[in-house]
Structures are given as C-alpha cells and as structure tokens.
Amino acid sequence: MVKAYTHEHVYKHPWERVTSAFWRKFTEPENKAVLSHIIEVDTLCRTLDPSSGVLFTTRAITVHSPGPRFLSRLIGQDFCHCVETSHVDPSARSMVSTTRNLSLRKFLEVEEKSSYHPHPANPDWTVVRQTTSIRCSPVSAVAAMAEKIEQRCAERFQQNSAKGRDVMERICKFLEAESSKGLSL
Q1: Are 11 and 168 in contact (CB under 8 A)?
Q2: Could you report the per-residue pLDDT of 122-153, keeping only the tens digit for each?
Q3: What's the pTM?
Q4: Can you say whether residue 45 is alpha, beta or left, with left for phi > 0 and alpha for psi between -120 and 50 degrees?
Q5: How many CB atoms lie within 10 A of CB 65?
Q6: Which of 4, 20, 23, 87 has the smallest count of CB within 10 Å of its CB?
C-alpha cells in the first residue's frame, strides 16, 4: 500500500525570492530549532549548464527517522539518509526538487517532489506543489503495521512541511526587506 498526498501552497512573493529562500532554508542557524528533524545537509554536486542556464544540484540530507518511535526502536536506527536532486531553470522560472530516502528502504520508501512556478493568476506570486508518497515494504518486519506506519509518517511529513513553509515565508520576508534597502538577494 502507498500513502500519498499532495499539497499546494502560494507564497505572495516572486519566484526568484522564493527559490532564493529555498537554498537558505537549511543553512541559517535560526532555522535549526524549527526544522529540528534535519540533522545535516551537504551539497554533493552543483552544475550549471552553460548553454541552457539550468542549475543542477544534488544534496545529501540526514533527518531523524520519519516514523513513530517504536519503528526506530524496531529497526535500530533513528536517522535516515536522503538524497535531494533539483534543477532550476531561471529562463522558464521553474524549479523542481525531488527527495528520496537512501537508508531504511527495506522498511520504508519515501519520495517528495516539489515544483516551484509563478502563480498563473499573479506572476508576482509563487505556487509550490508538493507531492509525497510513502510506502512500507510488504515483506519487511513492519508489514503487518504498514498502513498505520504510513499514516503516521504522512502526518509527520505534513507537520514538517508546514514548519518548512513557515521558515520559507520568514526568509522571503527577510529577503524582501533586504531588497527594499537596496541590498541584493
């Protein structure tokens, strides 16, 4: 069984500001308390295609395990390693990031895909569409509890996504204040 959900959020900020905030979300010390589930973020690769202007980035993200505590005890691990790939096309004003777990896959597979585009009705706003799928392995030690684990993981992901949106909004407001003072992004 797969637990999936989609969430759409509108930032009342231009695409350039929102995508700038995306890159600052995990790096600013004041965000660590709010995003306490994030342990570490490392950029593995960043490439700019000179002909298209598209930026490709791969980051390693270590998070506290997304499931309920009993699952961490059962599998003997309370953290999860993930990989995030993203591509930013400034000429199309499009950014897509996809995050997948690398560890714990024999128990749980998670994929989160987020796309950032100008709002169709107001190009000075940005719409973010986030799709997450969570699947417990049917042959793992947790198969009998799969539906409950997937539901609990989905709830935790939704809570953490809301925290991430709050951080992004705060950064966007900070960047807006900086730009009104004549400072660059």
Answers
A1: yes
A2: 999 999 999 999 887 776 555 567 677 777 77
A3: 0.83
A4: beta
A5: 21
A6: 4
Closest residue by Cα to residue 89 from 67, 131, 57:
57
Reported residue count of the chain is 185
Structure tokens at 105: 């896959």
Three-state SS for 162? helix
* 132 contacts 2 by C-beta, under 8 angstroms: no
What span, in angstroms and rounded, lies between the C-alpha atoms of 75 and 81?
14
Nearest-Å Rg of the Cα atoms of the chain is: 17
Give the closest residue to 60 by CA, choosing from 102, 20, 16.
Answer: 102
The side-by-side arrangement of strands in the sheet containing 2-11 is 2-11, 126-136, 108-118, 94-101, 79-89, 55-64, 38-48
Q: What is the pLDDT of residues 54-78, one digit of tens each?
A: 999 999 999 986 555 666 666 667 7
> Which residues make beta-bridge pairs with 117?
127
Q: Residue 31 and residue 180: Cα distance in Å, rounded?
A: 23
Give the three-class secondary structure for 131: strand
Measure the CA–CA gap between 120 and 1, rounded to whole angstroms: 34
Which residues partner with 99 through β-bridges? 84, 112
